[in-house]
Amino acid sequence: MTMDHDEIREALTAMRARDLPTHGGRTLAYVYDSGLASADAIGREALAAFASTNGLDPTAFPSLLQMENDLVGIAGRLVDAPAGFAGVVSSGGTESILLAVLAARDARPDVVAPRMVLPTTAHAAFHKAAHWLRVEPVLVDVDPVTKRADPEAMAAAIDERTVLVVASAPSYAHGVIDPVEPIAAAAAAAGVRCHVDACIGGWVLPHLRSTEPGQQAWTFAVDGVTSLSLDLHKYAYTPKGVSVLLHASADLRRTHLFASARWPGYTMLNTTAQSTKSGGPVAAAWAVVHHIGADRYTSLARDARTATLDLAAAVDGIPGLSVAAPPDSTLLSLVADDSCDVFTISDEMLERGWFVQPQMRLRDLPATLHLTFSAATAASSALIAADLAASTATAQASGPARSAPELVAMAAAIDPATLDESTFTALLGAAGLAGGDGQLVLPERMAPVNALLDALPPELREALLLGVIDRLARPTP
Ligand SMILES: Cc1ncc(COP(=O)(O)O)c(C=O)c1O
Question: Which residues carry this modification: N6-(pyridoxal phosphate)lysine (predicted)?
Answer without folding.
Answer: 234
